[in-house]
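Q: Structure tokens for this one, please.
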Amino acid sequence: MDLSERELEIIDLVAQGLTNQEIGERLMISKRTVDNHVSNVFTKTGAKNRVALLNWAMDHGKICRDGFNCCNLPQDGSAG
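A: Here is the predicted structure, written as tokens:
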């Protein structure tokens, strides 16, 4: 399964607790575009809701929270 860079960015922002509206504002795209990205991510990952998506993302090393999975993520030299 291939997730686009934008979809990975959306997953990270969902993990930060942002709403679709807030994600749109942050990325300077419409809420509807965010809705479409989230829907596509749900389809690609098999997640049925945001909690399931975040569990999937943790299990697959796509997000790092509280020190979990951080070693699985590519290191780009930035802190955060």
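A few notes: The helical segments are 5-15, 20-27, 31-45, 50-59. The mean pLDDT is 86.
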